[in-house]
């Protein structure tokens, strides 16, 4: 019952329930990165300049390299990466369908806020994994220079047009809300992953109060990100 | 007047007309790779399985790494990569708009036949470039494992459904036709690039008969590619 867990011991890999949970998490992150790749590649077409379009396409390609990292780890754990990714298709596609950006800036805010929130959540959960799986997850969540680009473009635009700031602040809150809805769906359906958070006989886990504190941390980091963009959370 | 040219001498880089032509060619290839990235990322969504979707997305990401190679060389030649790419936006977008695949297999055939033809053409032209620019172009045209994947999928599908083979053969011819129309538009508008092919006082070039033979080679290679896929050219 600690909030700075040392992760699952190496021996956890002999426990089928643990492996199933780790594969589940890797599958979720992998599908998330694949979907992020597709959305960024799509949203790049909304770019106002060719330079911005190339920049966002480059970030999309960066996301894809993470997918390969994750599928390799899933295979190393003896599972089929595509079967592992499949259960997360519906919630992630639902999330993206409900948060279609209507312009370039909404796309940027979505990429920054949505992927940032997902990365925070997966990093929290990764703390309960064995060292090698944890490293794969955290490496695959590394910021590929996207943040600085998005912050620069969004701050520049709202400095010129204050009404844009109001609209994007609303948009950021909607992204947050939709993400929470989908996360709850996943949590309700994927028992293996919630079991990972709950811990095991020889593995640390979270009690309900700790889950509450985790959500408080995620909300706080979301507010920090909105502030970075110059938006009210 | 040779068809196995040794390329432009290093000294050509001091000739502004040569540099302009080289930048023009690099810009064309760069926009082509950017557009190929976007189309592959789009077409991946048509994949029948998650494994195929990941495979095609991986090829898209591979194309993008070529864009970075090319823009770096354009900058090294003292030009703005986005300005260099811009003139090729309209012809390439027109080509893609006129050749929207209606299913997964049309997307695969388009990727194989269309990009193969473009690569052959750029390789022919690259022969008239200085060594370093030529290497950038040929490296950026390298097959990133896409061919084997496409050949496998298309041959497998037409073995099971012969009518698909007939439809895809027609589709391949249409890709060829549309590509030629756009190539002629580019040739008519971009004098710098045609000047490159025509050569200069100290640079080898092509006469009209040699241009004809070049087109014969391109057509022959197109027929080879169709045969690889198991389709009539």
TrEMBL record, chains A, B:
InterPro entries on file: Ferritin-like, Ferritin-like_SF, Ferritin_actino
Superkingdom: Bacteria
Organism: Nocardioides yefusunii
Domain Ferritin-like: 18-200
Name under which the protein is recorded: Ferritin-like fold-containing protein
